[in-house]
Write a structure and sequence with these properties.
CATH topology: Leucine Aminopeptidase, subunit E, domain 1
Low-confidence stretches: 1-6
Radius of gyration: 15 Å
Strand content: 25-35%
Protein name: Macro domain-containing protein
Catalytic activity: an N-(ADP-alpha-D-ribosyl)-thymidine in DNA + H2O = a thymidine in DNA + ADP-D-ribose
Order of helices and strands: EEEHHEEHEHE
Number of domains: 1
Oligomer: single chain
CATH architecture: 3-Layer(aba) Sandwich
Mean pLDDT: 92
Organism: Kitasatospora arboriphila
CATH superfamily: Leucine Aminopeptidase, subunit E, domain 1
CATH class: Alpha Beta
Structural class: alpha/beta
């Protein structure tokens, strides 16, 4: 796997050093990441996605803009095809964003759980592996000790190969 070094495997999840916006391996791949429910796109991992492809951001903004009619909300997932064998999953797992006045963190574990369950169906239908940074643990403020069991239960234990990338 050029560009990534395998760092280990835990309970059906492969951990590698590398960039989740450049997923490694053969076959169909879905890059999963967490979005907020405000329609904001501009910090964190989404910047790496936007450097590679304009479609995920454009689709997310349109999805948010038309949210009264399309199911946008916490726990929802939007799949956007960016290459023949690469999709991006915009998963709404964050309530709002962190500001200087914020109390608490924006991550919503129950929304990530629901989104991962939906994503599993999409991944199985596409015959895809799922690739991600440590979702919900950057700007959303979550803890991987709480997210990893959700990823394991909803994806890895359902037969979906998962690779988590650490920079």
């Amino acid at each position: 796997m050029p560009g990534a070094s395998v760092a280990g495997m835990a309970a059906g999840i492969t951990y590698v050093r590398g960039d989740a916006s450049a997923p490694q391996g053969a076959g169909v791949k879905v890059i999963a990441h967490v979005c907020n429910d405000l329609g904001g796109w501009g910090k964190g991992f989404v910047l790496a996605l936007s450097r590679r492809w304009p479609e995920p951001e454009a689709a997310y903004r349109a999805w948010h803009r038309d949210r009264a009619r399309n199911g946008f909300g916490l726990g929802a997932v939007q799949l956007v095809q960016v290459e023949r064998y690469v999709w991006v999953a915009n998963l709404v797992g964050q309530r709002g964003i962190r500001t200087g006045r914020s109390s608490g963190v924006p991550v919503r574990y129950e929304a990530i759980d629901a989104g991962l369950a939906e994503l599993a169906g999409h991944a199985r239908r596409l015959g895809a592996s799922v690739h991600m940074p440590r979702i919900g643990c950057g700007l959303a403020g979550g803890r991987w000790e709480r997210v990893e069991p959700l990823v394991r239960a909803r994806l890895a234990e359902q037969g979906v190969a998962v690779t988590v990338y650490d920079r």
